[in-house]
Amino acid sequence: MVPIDAPSPLPDDSARQGHAPVMLAEVLHALAPIAGQTVLDATFGGGGYTRAILAAGAAQVIALDRDPDAIARGRPLADAEPRLTLVQARFGELDQVVRDQGLGQVDAIVFDLGVSSFQIDQPERGFSFRFDAPLDMRMSKEGQTAAEVVAEASEVELARLLWNYGDERDARRIARAVVAERDKAPIDTTRRLAEIVARAKGPSRDQIDPATRTFQALRIVVNDELGELRQALEAAERALRPGGRFVTVAFHSGEDSIVKDFVNDRGGRIRRSYRHMPPVPEENPRWGWLIDRPLRPTAEESGDNPRARSAKLRSAMRLGAGVKFPGPARGDAGMNEDER
């Protein structure tokens, strides 16, 4: 974990170019930041949420990102804004970051999960099949690359990760093709992998690029995104004060399910074997939902920003002694009740 205090010559608005924070108005409404509060932005990215939280009057924002490029982009804002503390760290370490800042707990925490627009749009990072670049995908620029995963995993392992993390229906066919092609020559660029996947899958049946789910799955594996999220939720429970608000914006069903199950379990809502089985309440629940169903972006936002289309926003409160819990407000009426 590296606190950022070095100045940067970059212009202040450089971090916002090409980046549109998803469901910003809904996030601010759910966080409800007020003067005097300390808010933790666990995924700084382009700084969109952080800027809005500061503008709303928060006394202090602690912003984290594991990506050194995101931290570099945020330096001008941190230099100009004394209320902002920018730290390079994984969000699974957020409770340690809060302690390092001399704080007991914070008043609110927000997560914008998944890959950032900046990472996708930098060809050299290897996140996108739109460019021909090294097959990297490491958010922190450390550890195993996607090319190494492709080179070392067995056919069975590749099929499993494509199915589990990419919801890829053709996982076995793609895994078989990858193993056959890597025996001929290394698969170390985004274009080569994308071409192999496209040949294995054939013409797209749903207007989604054939490589989309494969690249998503590899990115999640390389960065241990689901494991990191589980650690982050445990850390958030320690770092968030009773009565504090917790907001997540997820773009992948696995991430959203982890958040939903965590809050349900800690809030006394056990997973039911069938839908009409009543939940068994916990005597001292630690979490409560602030909205009864996940919120989705508006049609207008989805049209303007295609990345927003799959977003789901969930909001919960950390409960404890003396907390007056308002109970859940009605969420997106268009969502199935099973999404709860």
Examine the coordinates and then state which fold CATH places here, giving the name of the CATH topology of the largest domain.
Rossmann fold
Shape estimate: globular
Calculate the terminal CA-CA distance, rounded to whole Å.
35 Å
The low-confidence parts are 1-18, 333-338
Task: Characterise the protein shown here.
This protein has 340 residues and is of the alpha/beta class. It has 2 domains: 2-118 and 225-339, Rossmann fold; 141-222, DNA polymerase, domain 1 (Orthogonal Bundle). The chain is 38% helix and 13% strand. It has helices spanning 24-31, 48-55, 68-80, 94-100, 117-121, 146-152, 155-166, 171-182, 190-201, 212-222, 225-239, 253-266, 299-304, and strands at 2-3, 38-41, 60-65, 84-88, 106-112, 240-250, 287-289, 312-318. An 8-stranded mixed sheet has the order 1-4-3-2-5-6-8-7, sandwiched between helices. Strand 3, helix 3 and strand 4 (84-88) form a beta-alpha-beta unit. Helix 7 crosses helix 10 and helix 11 (225-239) runs parallel beside helix 12. The two termini are 35 Å apart. Mean pLDDT is 85; it is low at 1-18 and 333-338.
What topology emerges from the helices and strands here?
Blueprint: E1 2-3, H1 24-31, E2 38-41, H2 48-55, E3 60-65, H3 68-80, E4 84-88, H4 94-100, E5 106-112, H5 117-121, H6 146-152, H7 155-166, H8 171-182, H9 190-201, H10 212-222, H11 225-239, E6 240-250, H12 253-266, E7 287-289, H13 299-304, E8 312-318
Parallel strand pairs: 2-3, 2-5, 3-4, 5-6
Antiparallel strand pairs: 1-4, 6-8, 7-8
